[in-house]
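Review form for a predicted model. The reviewer records the input and the model, then writes brief findings.
Reviewer: anonymous (R2)
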Amino acid sequence: MATRNFPTTFTAMMAPFLIWAGHFGLVYAVNGIACERGLDGARLLGFPAVPFLVVVATVVALLVTGWILLRCVTGGGPAEHVGSQDPREFARWFTGAGAASSLLAILWVGLPALLVPACG
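Model under review:
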């Protein structure tokens, strides 16, 4: 049985929130840079650049967070190495709840950025 220290387990439990925070920062950075530099009309691979980058960031964040949620539901998760049942259940429950709420938060950030013009 592998051993993990508390900081590693805690970071794994915080992973859904860290993914959401990274997505949040990236979406607003892309929009801010596009507006500041006058790039709101720029195109990337034939698509408008800002919505394209927001879609890519949102899909990646949703996939990774969904994978974390799936691992928690199927019995994996950040504390599968812990010997006793109670800490494992708490870590799995906390990570799963965080992943579910982070999925909603990622959608909440991504959808308005897609529906409203970048500098509108």
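Findings: The mean pLDDT is 84.
Further findings: The chain has one domain: 17-115.
Recommendation: see findings above.
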